[in-house]
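pls design
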């Protein structure tokens, strides 16, 4: 699409009942490809290696994404300063470069650009509403120079900070989505999901939900609790979900960052494309219409979302040209036992083996372990 004016906005699409497919994760995918440093997780690759960011954007677009998020995770000036990983590039330079890359790729299809802000070290350090809002305001101003389509507040584990971000971003006049990285137990201060949703909507959020930290079905459960809280309060908002691409049956409050495998040994927990089909359907049935992914979500995961909701959207994504639905292309295989797998029933009922006989199926998250130690000390 060659003209931004022809695009319908995010709220226009959601108000019409359409399914909006989000994109996937960036920091973890780019870390694995050699463009992001783990531990820092800062997005200077948007300036240093724009070709890498552009390519990942394109893969998500081809997989069916309707939204391309700016690669601006942890791009507040305080985070960049603390990381010490970025000394010759400013946050403004990263924000503007990321906007240009996202818009360039979005213009290759019918996609929107979401300007993304995430939690700030300042919140935990000073707990100053004035200081935190000033950081969000600075980022917002960078995005407005590039006229992004809407904002997303993401990866925030305290609803209070998310509310402050929403209050700032709403002054732009652009739609605002707010996603918390929380469990069904609530945020890090123990505020239940339902109350979190109510506070976000009262602050002005048009779209609310969760992202990252926990696996898809756990996140669906959390969004259901948010939906119930809104209904009880007589409030309305669109629902969105962009979960973690790894299995986290522990369902701990701290999420996957508390798992012993984080961040360099998560591969055996990876979600399959067939898991994603189930997730997308569960999300849709729960009334969620903005369905995407976060860390661990590769382009083929986004394609799986698009394929699962193809009937509702009325089309398949370009990437499905190279993928037989439910393994249909395996019918051409020379081996009969592989040909026998060219059916939906096989993949829906498969219990994948890890190939690691001495490994446990679950772990003791660090946050749970620390709680156990505290209990023992108190006893």
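designed seq:
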């Amino acid at each position: 699409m060659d003209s931004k004016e022809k695009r319908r906005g995010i709220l226009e699409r959601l108000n019409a009942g359409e399914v909006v497919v989000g994109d996937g994760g960036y920091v973890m995918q780019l870390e694995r490809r050699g463009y992001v440093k783990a531990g820092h997780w800062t997005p200077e690759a948007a300036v240093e290696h724009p070709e890498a960011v552009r390519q990942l954007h394109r893969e998500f677009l081809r997989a069916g994404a309707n939204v391309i998020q700016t690669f601006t995770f942890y791009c507040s000036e305080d985070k960049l300063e603390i990381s010490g990983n970025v000394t010759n590039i400013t946050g403004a330079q990263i924000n503007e470069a990321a906007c240009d890359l996202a818009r360039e790729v979005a213009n290759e299809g019918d996609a929107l650009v979401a300007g993304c802000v995430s939690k700030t070290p300042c919140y935990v350090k000073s707990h100053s509403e004035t200081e935190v809002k000033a950081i969000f305001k600075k980022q917002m101003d960078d995005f407005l120079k590039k006229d992004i389509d809407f904002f997303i507040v993401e990866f925030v584990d305290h609803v209070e900070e998310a509310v402050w971000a929403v209050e700032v971003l709403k002054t732009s006049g652009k739609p605002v989505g707010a996603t918390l990285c929380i469990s069904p137990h609530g945020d890090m201060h123990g505020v239940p999901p339902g109350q979190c949703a109510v506070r976000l909507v009262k602050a002005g959020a048009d779209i609310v939900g969760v992202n990252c930290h926990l696996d898809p079905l756990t996140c669906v459960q959390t969004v259901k609790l948010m939906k119930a809280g809104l209904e009880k309060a007589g409030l309305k908002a669109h629902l969105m979900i962009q979960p973690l691409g790894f299995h986290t049956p522990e369902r701990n409050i701290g999420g996957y960052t508390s798992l012993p495998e984080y961040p360099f040994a998560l591969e055996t927990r990876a979600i399959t494309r067939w898991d994603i089909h189930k997730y997308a359907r569960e999300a849709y049935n729960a009334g969620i219409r903005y369905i995407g992914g976060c860390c661990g979500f590769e382009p083929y995961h986004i394609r799986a979302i698009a394929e699962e909701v193809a009937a509702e959207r009325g089309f398949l994504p370009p990437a499905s040209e190279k993928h037989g639905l439910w393994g249909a292309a395996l019918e051409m295989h020379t081996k009969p036992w592989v040909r026998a797998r060219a059916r939906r029933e096989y993949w829906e009922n498969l219990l994948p083996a890890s190939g690691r006989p001495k490994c446990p199926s679950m772990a003791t998250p660090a946050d749970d372990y620390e709680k156990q130690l505290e209990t023992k000390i108190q006893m």
